[in-house]
Write a structure and sequence with these properties.
Blueprint (H helix, E strand, L loop, with lengths): L1 E3 L2 H12 L2 E6 L6 E6 L2 E7 L7 E5 L5 E4 L5 E5 L24 E2 L5 E2 L11
Parallel strand pairs: 1-4, 5-7
Antiparallel strand pairs: 2-3, 3-4, 6-7, 8-9
């Protein structure tokens, strides 16, 4: 989901300049949500005045560079051969005990992290 304070302008830019097509848009009278797709990417664009801009990586050999949308989000076109470096993911055995550190979640249920070292701390 990509929130946008400039929904109409972002949608027009994605359609006209970046080859996205509309898969769904609603409500019909005053659209506030659009699902668009291109280059194997599917986005849910929503009208949101308080949205934080996001950076999207689009893998394609048709285009390169970085483009800012009117709402502040950025499309970064990268070749299919782009490599990403991830931190090491060393598996460890972690024993956790209930030390009273928990948080109230949905429906008043209490939650705690049972596997604090999962994914190498990421």
């Amino acid at each position: 989901m990509v929130g946008s304070p400039a929904f109409d302008d972002d949608l027009a830019t994605l359609l006209d300049d970046h080859g996205f097509q509309i898969d769904a848009i609603f409500p019909a009278d005053a659209p506030s949500t659009a699902i668009v797709s291109s280059q194997g990417v599917r986005l849910r664009l929503e009208r949101d005045a308080a949205a934080t801009p996001v950076r999207l990586h689009v893998l394609t050999d048709d285009r390169t560079g970085s483009v800012s949308l009117p709402g502040g989000s950025t499309l970064e076109y990268r070749p299919f051969t782009t490599t990403y470096t991830l931190p090491a993911n060393d598996a460890t055995l972690v024993v956790t005990h209930d030390d009273g550190r928990s948080a109230v979640g949905r429906a008043g249920m209490r939650y705690r992290d049972l596997i604090p070292d999962r994914w190498g701390g990421r």
